[in-house]
Write a structure and sequence with these properties.
By secondary structure, the protein is an alpha/beta fold. Helices cover about 30% and strands about 15% of the residues. The chain has 14 helices and 19 strands.
């Protein structure tokens, strides 16, 4: 066989034009032999409010790099998360399917994975876009947050790990940021349960002390063995719960490279720099072959650890500082694309996993969650001061919890400055990426996402979604209908959270609003909004104010029933057995339980 001759620079530069022609209907396919497949760069922020970006209307936070990305590409104005919390939203994003189809939603209670040492996670039989592109010859990397589980039965089986879901390289956090990761911050993981256990421990300790004092002073006739037994039970009780909760930072806040733990516990002050370095390095290593790189940012999730040079720069406290640092990180990644000559050959996408976290507040630091713009959840000081009804992270139906940024750039192929106003979903990224990479979507399962290619190229006038369904856990809270004939966009709410914005415990003492129970209001008849005229969902319609009220509610109800007929029972990944911390599953650097390691050179501030 003759040696392979590298393509000339002219031949390498010819492919964007060919790819652009391939976007025109009927001319050719993306997989044409003489057109190289595009690189795919997916950037996802964590807990970012859609109203935090200049290109979505914010005038008081500086996000020039993301704004430039939007100016050079296509901006989706009605882009929607499939779930209002991290774990289920990301499961839907990776698979193109509602999270409850893979068991990655809960009926209530725990709605996101709580421990690296739990056994729940994205099942191996689910197919991610990374797996399909890996089969098509792509290098596939994930840098940053995973939050889809690690192992099933043993510490090293890694059944839920990114490497088992199509990524050939992983560097980042298998869990998610929580306040416990930063020394000095109040507990977050199971904080209410930990407080109850501590109170119970104190009562038990007083009981044992009373027995011991009574025995010593002769006031109580208690066998000495009973006092010792009670003291021993107290020690065992305390040790049993402290073994997990006392080491949240060590067990959950760690960094992995592929299957190995490389920093435990992680030092947050250096993490952003490490992730940036890894993302740039991955692009440099794979710039001569098609690659898929998913940069899953830790920004802007609490505890909002921010580099010194960004502290105090914004007009909106620590949260604003963190947003502006995030924009800087995105800018450095885009700069690396340019320096490596990859900008025109890369399909770049930016989004958030769901809306801003309204309940994230601190007495000293103020509001720590994002601004969701006009979409149910305006709060003073984040670009607007007009108070509005609630809508944010954890709230399954309100726009503020699920309306997210959607920005796509591919220079020379997609038109700059284009806006798409039809309903689109994070689940649409799956079939879009698969199509661009020359793969085929699975035919053996329901795929809820629809390819964005026709919309992005302007070949389709309307979104492929007539109906979209909005879940909170396994509970259907709302559904939307885009009536393409009339152009009206209807939203029906069956359940809504009882949110009280004043003070702590905005949702009945919950850190995030619940999906059912006393914290939820059920509506019969359902609430109806016309989002095409009332995007803030501020004016519910009635049969008196809207002649089509009953017809719209009936039509959406019929679509809901058709959708429910496609659901099949699957094992829950959020069952008590899956969600509990198991010491034999805990990722560990060194000898368990003395897990500890640092990366060479320590944390970086550069």
């Amino acid at each position: 066989m003759a040696p392979r001759v590298p393509a000339s620079p002219a031949a390498r530069n010819r492919w964007p034009v060919l790819a652009a022609l391939c976007l025109l209907p009927g001319l050719c396919q993306f997989k044409a032999a003489d057109a190289r497949k595009p690189n795919i760069l997916l950037i996802m922020a964590d807990d970012l409010g859609i109203g935090d970006l200049g290109c979505y209307g914010n005038s008081t936070l500086r996000t020039p790099n993301i704004d430039r990305l939007a100016a050079e590409g296509v901006r989706l104005t009605q882009h929607l998360a499939a779930a209002p919390l991290c774990t289920p939203s990301r499961a839907a994003f990776l698979t193109g399917r509602h999270a409850l189809r893979s068991g990655m939603e809960a009926s209530d209670g725990y709605r996101a994975l709580q421990w690296n040492g739990g056994s729940g996670g994205l099942p191996e039989n689910e197919t991610t876009f990374a797996r399909i592109l890996q089969q098509r010859g792509y290098a596939t990397g994930l840098i940053g947050k995973w939050h889809q589980g690690v192992s099933c039965q043993s510490r090293r089986d890694h059944c839920h790990h990114p490497l088992r879901h199509g990524f050939d390289y992983f560097y980042g956090m298998p869990f998610t940021l929580v306040d416990d990761c930063l020394p000095g911050r109040p507990p977050e993981v199971d904080a209410a349960l930990r407080a109850r256990l501590w109170r119970l421990t104190q009562w038990l300790a007083w009981g044992v002390l009373t027995l011991a004092v009574g025995k010593a002073w002769g006031l109580l006739s208690v066998p000495r063995g009973a006092v010792l037994g009670a003291a021993g039970l107290l020690v065992l009780f305390f040790a049993s719960w402290y073994a997990s909760f006392g080491f949240v930072r060590r067990w959950n806040c760690l960094l992995m490279r592929n299957g190995e733990v490389v920093e435990q516990p992680m030092v947050l002050e250096g993490t952003a720099g490490r992730l940036l370095k890894e993302a740039v390095s991955y692009m440099e290593r794979n710039k001569h072959r098609p690659f898929l790189l998913f940069v899953s940012l830790l920004h802007v999730h609490i505890p909002l650890v921010t580099r010194r040079e960004f502290l105090g720069r914004s007009r909106h406290g620590l949260y604003g500082d963190n947003v502006e640092e995030m924009d800087w990180l995105v800018g450095k990644i885009l700069e690396a694309l340019e320096e490596n000559g990859l900008t025109n050959s890369t399909f770049t996408y930016f989004t958030s996993d769901h809306g801003g976290h309204l309940e994230a507040r601190d007495e000293q630091l103020g509001q720590l969650g994002g601004w969701n713009g006009v979409y149910r959840g305006e709060t003073p000081g984040h670009g607007g001061s007009r108070p509005g009804p609630p809508g944010g992270k954890g709230m399954g139906g309100w726009e503020g919890g699920i309306r997210v940024p959607g920005i796509v750039r591919w220079p020379g192929v997609l038109p700059a400055g284009r806006e798409v106003h039809g309903p689109t979903s994070l689940m649409d990224v799956f079939p879009t990426v698969v199509e661009l990479g020359g793969g085929q979507t699975p035919q053996d399962r329901v795929i809820d996402g629809r390819s964005l290619v026709p919309l992005l190229q302007g070949a389709a006038e309307h979104s492929a979604h007539e109906f979209l369904f909005h879940y909170c856990g396994k509970h259907l809270h709302a559904a939307r209908w885009h009536n393409k004939d009339s152009g009206r966009l209807w939203k029906v709410h069956y359940m809504t959270p009882r949110f009280h914005p004043e003070g702590a415990g905005a949702c009945y003492g919950h850190g995030v609003c619940p999906c059912s129970g006393d914290g939820v209001a059920r509506h019969s008849p359902p609430l109806l909004f016309d989002l095409s005229r009332d995007p803030s969902e501020a004016r519910p319609l009635s049969p008196d104010s809207e002649p089509l009220f009953h017809a719209v509610v009936a039509r959406v109800g019929a679509a809901v029933e058709e959708h429910r007929a496609t659901l099949t029972p699957v094992p829950s990944q959020f069952s008590l057995n899956h969600i509990l911390w198991k010491p034999w599953l805990q990722p560990c650097c060194g000898t368990f339980p003395f897990c500890s390691c640092t990366q060479d050179g320590g944390p970086s501030e550069k």
